[in-house]
Specification:
Elements: H1 2-19, E1 22-27, H2 34-45, H3 49-62, E2 64-70, H4 72-84, E3 88-93
Antiparallel strand pairs: 1-2, 1-3
Helix pairs in contact: 2-3
């Protein structure tokens, strides 16, 4: 009986962990122009100019910005795309 309860608890923890969203974080770098970063956010993510500018300024002033949140696979695709544009980006778990 205890092993069944432990197994159920483990399965529940795994389901909850799988539901926690992931995020794509873009990091500041000394190479890319702010206008280029904003252009990438508009082009790749389809963000309106205002949102792209806000995120670009956050990257510039705070050193990073969360640009997307979702399942891990999608966030990994976004990171690969950001690397393709020459931006530094990582995937991490979103805080619960």
């Amino acid at each position: 009986m205890t092993s069944t309860l432990e197994q159920q608890a483990t399965e529940l923890r795994e389901r909850i962990a799988a539901e926690v969203p992931w995020r794509t974080v873009v990091w500041d770098d000394p190479v890319n122009l702010m206008s280029y970063v904003s252009y990438v956010f508009r082009t790749y993510f389809g963000y309106p100019r205002e949102k792209a500018e806000r995120l670009m300024l956050q990257v510039h002033t705070e050193g990073r910005a969360v640009v997307a949140t979702g399942n891990r696979e999608a966030m990994e695709r976004h990171v690969e795309a950001m690397h393709g544009y020459g931006l530094q980006a990582t995937v991490s778990r979103a805080e619960s």
